[in-house]
Every structure is written in C-alpha cells, then in structure tokens.
Design brief:
Helices cover 47% and strands 22% of the residues. The protein has four helices and four strands, in the order αβαβαββα. A four-stranded mixed β-sheet has the order 2-1-3-4, covered by helices on one side. It is globular.
C-alpha cells in the first residue's frame, strides 16, 4: 500500500507545482511535447522566436509527456504537440498540432 500512496503524493506534488505556475496573471503557454515527436522538434525554433518576441508579457513552458504522464493524462493530452494557454489558473485556449507563430502570438496577446 505504501507504493500507491507514494505515487499519489508524487502526482499531487506535480499538480501543486503546475497549479502554482498556471495561476499567474501573465498568460502561460504550455507546450506538451515528446522528444521522439518530429512536429514537436519543428516547433522548438518557433517557440524560441515567440519567446524573444513576447518577452516578459508571457511565459512559455515545455512539458515532456513521457516524463509527466500523470499531468498529460489529467489534461487529456492525446497527441503532441498540444498547446494550452492558462491565465489566473483558467484554461483559455487549447490546440493540438503544429501551430504557426502568428497563431500563438495572436492567442497569447488576447490575455496580456
């Protein structure tokens, strides 16, 4: 039984950290990705450029679904990449698949 409790505590700790992150007044763009995913690799330079363009107005966080399976399951991530924007703890936008930088900029700008 202790093993089950340890897993539950681990999941709770991950969720607590994630919940703290998404409670920000700044919009948070989450990229659920996998290291083996070709389209995810294509998005990396797009996210780098997006980060340089939005600066401090938003945060961009990448979450590896293989290392964070519980979190991916809780948010029903079925394909990668999956992007989500949170603000003040609320999910504001969600889309799966490769996204143009302009789409990501436009969606983030709605929540500055």
């Amino acid at each position: 039984m202790q093993g089950i409790y340890a897993v539950l505590i681990s999941i709770l700790n991950i969720m607590e950290k994630f919940e703290d992150i998404i409670k920000s007044e700044k919009p948070i763009l989450i990229d659920f990705f996998a290291t083996w995913c070709g389209p995810c690799k294509m998005m990396h330079p797009v996210l780098e450029e997006l980060h340089s363009e939005v600066g401090e107005k938003a945060r961009i966080i990448k979450i590896d679904i293989d290392k964070n399976q519980e979190l991916a399951a809780i948010y029903n991530v079925r394909s990668v990449p999956t992007f989500m924007i949170f603000r003040n703890g609320e999910l504001k936008w969600r889309q799966s698949g490769v996204q143009p930088i302009q789409t990501l900029k436009d969606e983030l700008a709605k929540y500055y």
